[in-house]
């Protein structure tokens, strides 16, 4: 994956959560449509988010917890990619 791919993939959760500007959404969508590996990663993350949403429908998680989880995921993915 290219550096551009990594930059887009770091924004996937913001995209899924509706936290991006319209211009950034269009740019990410265009990239996903032209990059099968990124589309696969996006679809995986979207399915995971939906599964968590259905499993935890009782109460939203605290913002601090979400931030810790996202940081942990990014750190873990970076470490795994560097080792591979």
From TrEMBL:
The alphabetized UniProt keywords are:
Transcription, Transcription regulation
Q: Which InterPro entries match?
A: Anit_sigma_mycothiol_RsrA, Anti_sigma_zinc_sf, Znf_put
Q: Which residues cross the membrane?
A: none
Q: Name one Pfam family in it.
A: zf-HC2
The answer to whether keyword Nucleotide-binding applies is no
Domain named Putative zinc-finger: which ranges?
5-38
Q: What is this protein called?
A: Mycothiol system anti-sigma-R factor
Which organism is this protein's natural source? Kytococcus schroeteri
């Amino acid at each position: 994956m290219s550096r551009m791919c990594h930059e887009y993939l770091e924004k996937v959760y913001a995209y899924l959560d509706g936290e991006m500007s319209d211009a950034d959404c269009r740019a990410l969508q265009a990239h996903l449509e032209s990059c099968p590996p990124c589309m696969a990663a996006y679809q995986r993350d979207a399915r995971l988010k939906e599964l968590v949403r259905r499993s935890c429908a009782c109460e939203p998680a605290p913002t601090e917890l979400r931030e810790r989880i996202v940081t942990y995921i990014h750190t873990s993915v970076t470490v795994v990619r560097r080792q591979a």
